[in-house]
Design goal:
The structure is a homodimer. Chain A folds into 2 domains: about 290 residues, Aminopeptidase (3-Layer(aba) Sandwich); about 120 residues, Alpha-Beta Plaits, CATH 3.30.70. Helix content of chain A is about 35%, strand content about 20%. In chain A, strand 1 and strand 2 form a beta hairpin. By secondary structure, chain A is α+β, with helices and mostly antiparallel strands. In chain A, about 55% of the residues are buried. At the A-B interface, strand 9, strand 10, helix 6, helix 9 and strand 11 of A face strand 9, strand 10, helix 6, helix 9 and strand 11 of B. Strand 11 of chain A pairs antiparallel with strand 11 of chain B, so a sheet runs across the interface.
């Protein structure tokens, strides 16, 4: 799917590269951590900043949309041609928590460029990938001599993606008229590697819960009482241990009900990807692969659901020792879901499974966060062809197909707007999403700009709107 | 074993009660937390304070003994009669960690009296129970008209008991000449209840370890990698879940090797104690009993070994969620041991058991703290009779026999000095050792003073020294 690149687009991008990166750094300095209440003002500041920047870019409309939580940003730039298709770009302006002491080499909210990489929380997930569209649309206009994009371009950049998008679906439902689109472009995923540009065809969903187990009313002496009362930390550990069977399959009854199994064709395409376990492990900062029996590593992260413990805590974790039975214990569990899995069903079966495992004397408080649905676009969808062509021009080479193991609220857009979802991402696995020293490769970021510059024209020419 | 109390002893105690409590409060204000390195200076201050106070009490010798860790205090008051037996009182001046935010109603290091109870960290464990001997010996002298105690009285008050007494055995070995005694009185246990005074005949031992499990080099994204690499928090949880079998017996192979089983006589005596599960549960601040099949609650805490998780931690434990696979996880495990169990053997089998359960990709760091041996004195030992008589006079009623589920370095004293160990404790289960709002009942504290006042004379009269 390689196409010829456009020298006018490339010249324009080269001329505006420095200012583009300065602007992005300014945005990355805002610690818009949606999961931490004390950063609520920063998330708002991030939304205000983006709306102002989109206005400067040329969007006739750029608005901050309130939600019961953190605000989103909406922008709109109509095409000249009233018959042009409408495209909605989705991304998010909030970021994961980050603190220098988590292992960052530099301040996570003070962007620095080292070795042609931009390091900052949000550099890849997702501010960098939202922001490349601002230069992309201007390059599209400059190179084609247009004063308006070839498509009716809309942007919806939410502020709660890293907190599970609790108000996103309601927002999309409330504003469905203004968000109406023929296609959704999700700019919040990645590609295979620097050398292997890919288009993602789906994301896993996500159901998350917190389980607090209450035992004694206070920490008690493990000598005076140990061996004769239930220990909530032990109960927490037993729940985690019961999540999987000996084949590393999730052992919660009903968990796999109704899932869409991987097709032979996609399995074959994935097997042809240049997967190297050693370099994959390096990107995972891990020392061994381990997972569901009967599946490859790629199948495990792209096409199989999981149960994972993201956090566990209880009792004394400081220096030395403290011989107590702790009063309580905490579990943070998450379940990645694949097409065909319903988060409501997952919540129901997890609650039933946990309830059966709570002994007398322990009280469990189980809280589910709002879930994210899985999302999958068929391999033969025509929209994927436009995207793959635009990417092929930017990268001057063939484009392959993958999926993402991560989760985003793309499925809500698909459900509510009735529009197919296409994934445009230039991040690579080593970018360290959610981890210390998150970065984006500057060359790839600019390929993202270029793909955006080509995409709107290709879609306008080749996309047939639904009748 | 009820005896007639001595009105001269009681009058003396009543007259000196206020000053005694003021002095104790002064000591309790020193936060001598041995497990926390930043309190090292406080532990030293506590030792200095005690040595000075023992000199004021009348002890001709009161010294601070250095160790490679926290200092101990030694004091000696020889009897007039060179043929008198020698008694060594053991206790400790260090305390468990405590912070207001753990659930204390008042500052743990600012003692307050409410409803005839003295609240402070160390009030019962162990400063209060050490300190009652200072008034006890003076009451003994005042009531008998002596200028020196009826026994050669020695005190050894260590400073690392709450840290597992890492240097205690070496100290006792180094100073065995000066510590030589015919009997050891351990003042670091409790009794059944306010209404049922008891003498403790043994304590459990304690082996403690920390297991750190290292997985990915940093926290990684649970979407991008989840389902395909081992999660160290899951491995930690599986270790905890594997500690016990379905009968709540410890499942580590060899754990029960060689243990001294409870005799039918002691089992019978315990069955006659006024045990009420509901009030025991209140003291445990717990809502159900649970433990090894085939044993009563008392047997479980007094005569059966345990495996307990005192702390577990890994990943994100803050507000909201963070979809990561954590880089590492922490376990703090402790094993209560009974007579016949060797801590070195326990360490060996725990290491072997854990090693079998660490999957590829996870690296385990296992550290054992210095262990405390179990200790048991036969029911028919003559020393117990003197102690039970002294206690019977103070309480004006019968005295029964129990054990303690807790652990202390008494067995080292028994081993090195070749002297039997007697346990004199007036604390009750509701005192909240190691927990928030630790307290001592003032009436019982003064009964401890009184028991101490009677004990030295009874021992001198009735104790036959080893030939």
């Amino acid at each position: 799917m390689s196409q010829t690149p456009d020298s006018a687009v490339r010249t324009y991008i080269e001329q505006h590269r420095a200012a583009f990166l300065d602007d992005l750094a300014e945005w990355l300095r805002i610690p818009s951590v949606s999961a931490q209440p004390d950063h609520a003002a920063d998330v708002r500041r991030s939304a205000d900043w983006l709306a102002a920047r989109l206005t400067e870019t040329g969007f006739p409309t750029a608005e901050v949309w309130e939600t019961p939580g953190a605000p989103a940003v909406f922008a709109e730039w109509p095409a000249d041609d009233p018959e042009a298709p409408t495209v909605l770009v989705y991304g998010h302006h909030d970021v994961q928590p980050a603190a220098r002491e988590d292992g960052w080499d530099t301040d996570p909210f003070e962007p620095v460029v080292r070795e042609n990489r931009l390091y900052a929380r949000g550099a890849a997930d997702d501010k960098g990938q939202v922001f490349f569209h601002t230069l992309g649309v201007r390059a599209h206009l400059a190179a084609t001599g247009r004063t308006a994009p070839a498509v009716n371009l809309k942007l919806l950049i939410e502020g709660e993606e890293e907190s599970g998008s609790p108000h996103f679906r309601a927002l999309v439902e409330d504003r469905a008229d203004r968000l109406a689109a023929d296609a959704v472009i999700v700019s919040d995923t990645g590609m295979w590697s620097e050398d292997t540009p890919t288009v993602c065809t789906g994301m896993r969903g996500l159901a998350e819960c917190q389980i607090v187990l209450h035992g004694p009313d206070q920490d008690i002496h493990s000598g005076a009482f140990g061996g004769a009362v239930p220990n909530p930390a032990t109960v927490a550990a037993r729940l985690v241990a019961a999540l999987h069977d000996e084949h590393a399959r999730v052992a919660i009854p009903g968990f796999y009900d109704g899932i869409v199994e991987l097709s032979d064709r996609e399995r074959q395409l994935w097997a042809e990807l240049p997967f190297d376990e050693e370099s994959w492990l390096r990107e995972a900062h891990s020392y061994a692969t381990e997972g569901e029996a009967g599946h490859t590593t790629l199948e495990r992260v792209w096409a199989r659901p999981t149960a994972e413990v993201n956090g566990i805590g209880g009792g004394y974790q400081g220096p030395g020792s403290k011989t107590i039975i702790p009063s309580s214990a905490l579990l943070k569990l998450s379940f990645r879901l694949v097409a065909g899995q319903d988060p409501d069903h997952v919540e129901k079966i997890v609650r039933a499974w946990a309830a059966e495992r709570i002994p007398a004397g322990i009280r469990a408080e189980i809280t589910f966060l709002p879930a994210t649905r899985p999302c999958l676009t068929p391999l033969d969808h025509p929209g994927l062809q436009s995207l793959a062509r635009a990417m092929g021009r930017a990268f001057e080479g063939p484009v392959r197909f993958t999926r993402s193991g991560g989760s985003g609220p793309a499925a809500d857009l698909q459900d509510v707007l009735g529009a197919p979802v296409l994934f445009l991402g230039i991040s690579v696995p080593s970018d360290g999403w959610h981890a210390p020293n998150e970065k984006v490769e500057l060359d790839l970021l600019l390929k993202g700009v270029e793909t955006s510059a080509y995409l709107w024209g290709d879609l306008a020419e080749n996309w047939r709107r639904a009748p």
